[in-house]
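Lab meeting, action items carried over

1. Structure of the two-component assembly. Owner: GW. Status: complete.
Input record:
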Amino acid sequence: MPRSGRPTTAVAVLAALTALATACTGQSGASADDDPNAQVTLTFWHGWSAPGEVRAIEENIARFEQAHPNIKVRVTANMTDDKINQALRAGGDKAPDVVSSFTTDSVGKFCNSGAFADLNPFLEKSGVDKAKVFPRTLLEYTQYRGNQCTLPLLSDAYGLVYDKSAFAAAGITEPPKTWSQFTEDAQKLTVARGDTYDRLGVMPTFHGYETKPTRLAAQWGGTYFDARGKSNLAGDPAFAKMLTAQKDLVAKLGGYEKLEKYRATFGDEWSAEHPLHTGKVAMQIDGEWRPAMAKEAGVAFEIGTAPLPVPDDQVADYGKGYVSGTVMGISAASRKQNAAWELVRYMTTDTDTVVAFANAIHNVPSTLEALASPKLQVTPEFKTFIDIARHPKSATTPAQADGGTYQLTFEDFAYGVEKGDVADIGAGLARTDKQIDTDIAKAE
Amino acid sequence: MSPWLIGFALFFAYPLLSTVYFSFTKYDGFRPPVPSGLHNWTYLFTDYPLFWPAMRNTLWLVVVMVGCRVVFGLGTGLLITKIKTAPGLFRTLFYLPYLAPPVAATLAFVFLLNPGTGPAGVLLEGVGLHSPGWFTDADWSKPALTVLAVWGVGDLMVIFMAALLDVPKEQYEAAELDGAGAWARFRHITLPNISPIILFAVVTGVIQAMQYYTQPLVAGKVAAGVIGGSGEQFEPGYPDKSTLTLPQVVYNLGFQRFDYGAACAAALVLFALSMAFTALLMRRRGGLIGSGD
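Predicted assembly:
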């Protein structure tokens, strides 16, 4: 038999097993009838892996088990979305009952496919008014077409983290508010050396860690889908303006090739060798975790934080940003959904739990009460991100049936623009819209 | 029923037929499959943006990477059979890279060939040559993967070495008496004797290239800076889809996009291509294997 049959066989066997598994299991949230007071052991998978993060989760779980003596929780850390997806499909005793996913981009897929149970019936049964508990933006990215298949478990706000000493040395007295100022400051902070740099103002390319097209699009206020649910990248001038500004910034800082070559010298985003820590860049588009990580890495300079700049004609909206976060849901195949709901409710809605977790891992709290809690440890650097999360014009990327595929398609086009491969941005965005609509229609 | 028939039905016929069936359905692995006619096939060939780049890359790797591996495997095998001083040491040294786990080997190569800090770039520039972007340049990423594959050619080297040592010495002696030079001896004695092994190396190489997944994925992820963050979305193929291969397409469709139907269609394309290449090579084996073989 040719060995080339292996991928085919693997997919087919998995598919067949999954068909059997899903046929034998699965119950909707509305019909969950397990006794929440029965002795049960829940399996909980999450993606955190750093020792401090894992410890924080374990402490929360220990408090939960103390409050719910009949429920034991078996926790597995460092789970990627791919592993989660496959386990949910396979089902069975080893599959997780409760899952926490790092990316909001999968929510549309999870809800659309029915992989996660709809939490609306549980919220109703427990008398939890989600609109009063969670900020609007967070509710937006945790549901798809009314199916609230996940709830927010802490959130991430994106802003600007910078080296105050470099700013002072370059004669910059305050962080840039507009894109023009940002471009100007990035140039002032850049110290070129031959075909490389001693220091770069900011790494603008979309491969530069958290510098994603979606983060910048939020500053321009782009609307991804029109009222009919069709992709709107060409329809909303915000996207073309953002991409034009990005292309201009890349050109002004030395050009795509020179920048990418410099980027190749950067260390791991999650290590102490991050380019902001080592002085290779003076500004970084990043999440609320960066100031704490930089301090832990022992940086010699003072760290500043600020919202990301806005386009010159939107200066009144300065302070807004992109918001996403971690989500938590219950496997639709779980036979312990009522007990699982107790864990989800505790982790996502209990103010003290959310605050303790946010304090431990330096993330933005995901409930309105936790955001206002006096127990929340708020440093000046962290406050910037809390304010971004609260800003009424802060935005997220909407959940879609194809998960985050539409974002990747947009990102792929944006790579071409910043590289200089796209002559007509408007026509390219129209083609991208067509591709996104096709992919979403296929996924629905 | 013979055990062979049970094995064939269970592990080949049933999965294959299931894959064919699923390729004509809309199936996300959670909800039951729904017949969808040719939709997955038309989507794959006309609307799915990763398919044709993956197809082109896979064919490139089949031709160039397999060719390089066979040539270098044979060359190293020849070299090793000629070494008289500490042959065991050299055989071990040349074989060792093959034992390196693919992920570790790929990480090491991305580091070595890093255009900004890699020692390879420093060496090249030291002798006045411009160091290419290797894994960050779409024109160089597949050659870089080929260099990695050639580095780990120890498996072929051992096979060729065994075949070369099996060539009857009398034939060389007779040819030398007839005044044949080194190239003539290689062309008229060595090659015909080892041609079945060359065919084996080419066929298995083509199948391996068709299944090439780990190295391009890891190289693309690391070079793109996507090595942390368990929730981060990543579309394989960095840079500019140049490291995308057909197995990655199967994975992307099935496990990242929840589209088993289209993934099964892509898997069948992969299967058909492998079968076609193998059949073609076996049909043409007369050109490789002498009439007596």
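2. GW to write a short summary for the group page. Key points so far: The longest strand of chain A covers residues 151-163. The first helix of chain A runs from residue 5 to 24.
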